[in-house]
Amino acid sequence: MSHLELDVSKANFITWFKNTAIHKFDTSNGMVYLAVPNAFVRDWLQNKYHSSILRALRENLESVRCVEYVIHKGSPMVFQEQREVSVNQQMELSELYVDKEDNLNPKYTFENFIVGSFNELAYAAAQAVIKNPGISYNPLFIYGGTGLGKTHLIQSIGNSFKKIDRNKKIHYLSAERFTTECVDAIRNNKAHLFKEKYRRFDVLIMDDIQFLSGKEKTQEEVFHLFNTLYDNNKQIIFSSDKAPKQILGIEERLKSRFEGGMIADISSPEYESRLAILNAKLKILNYLVPEEILEYVASVIQNNIRELEGVLNLIMIHGQLKKRDLVINEVKQLIKNNVKPQKTISINDVIKIIANFYNIDERELYQKTRKKEVVKPRQIVMYILREDFNTSYPYIGHKLGGRDHTTVIHAYEKIKSDLTRDNLLSQEMDQIKTLLYGNV
Ligand code: ADP
Ligand code: MG
Predict the structure, then answer these.
(1) pLDDT tens string 131-141
(2) 415 Cβ neighbours under 8 A, 6+ residues apart
(3) Atom 11 of ligand 1, nearest CA residue
């Protein structure tokens, strides 16, 4: 649980989390099983910390959906043998509190931010802002896909300012949170207090502003707030998953403000940077993974730094469980079981490949026929579209011969349960997945 960052005091953290470990992560449903030593701890975690745990896990691995607590007799299974490592990690963890004043998380700093060609422009712009706040690059607008380091970068700017000048009033928040506060303030006739609160900051950092799309009232507040801060040479920093021009549902006048300063994108890291990121993370965690394995991970996990971290965590957790280094095939298996396949193949490809595999005419999968040799492949198609592509039941039904969504649910459940007892089916599934996703 070395990455868990929770709203608990250090003493509490050590009491409740010291014998806790991630036991298993099931990607099919995003379920994380946390091993706990006894029912008492389980109930405590469940009642008091459940949402913090879930949130922290999600920060590491986006695909996490829910957490279940399992009691492990004779645990702590993972960390007991490695008490020193785990305690250190926990200590480190417990220091990672989000500052209630400025909302900054101290774990995001430039010291642990790797710079490569994928993010060097954004990094350079950030450094320029730190040198000359409120002047040259105002606002700073950072955009890029999910898990590429936007939050890390913009929070690092905040933390740098904080280090330089403790009296500087810095504030970080997501556009979503701003929206909620704004709506609440208006509803409770507290708009003036809300306006005042944000106008007194020297540096305002607003994350994920694509969230403002379609929220007209909030956009208006952001617009006026922006003008006030800007006129007073206060630095404003935004992040978004798209360039300003590409965000739909944002007023033109606000877009032009977003574009009025410095815009920098973060793209996907290239292989060398991915490897450097893995190495840097391991150094921080004080953990060794054979070079061959790191190279493998860096070569297959291509477009998301959060996912790189997630895989590294899995390798550590499983290495600690097995009390030895994993071999490359085990890592391949881990990735195969835990990382959602990247969507380079289309739904039609899935159908084509499965039809080929079972030697049937692809068109039959789309038709209503109930021929036995077609029913099973069709159910497998449904299962894979649901499981790996997160496609909705109604859409799958629509795609495959206009079937009702309940039929799809039934097919999904059937294959899922058959897989647990039908060896042949499970071998076929492996072969199909290899055909679909290659030999990972
Ligand atoms: P985004 O906000 O773009 O979705 P995050 O900033 O949350 O992405 O980054 C995802 C994870 O990857 C975080 O744990 C972050 O610390 C890490 N990360 C991102 N960029 C870097 C980097 N350049 N160097 C080291 N770690 C990084
Ligand atoms: Mg983010």
Answers:
(1) 999 988 999 99
(2) 379, 380, 382, 383, 425
(3) 306
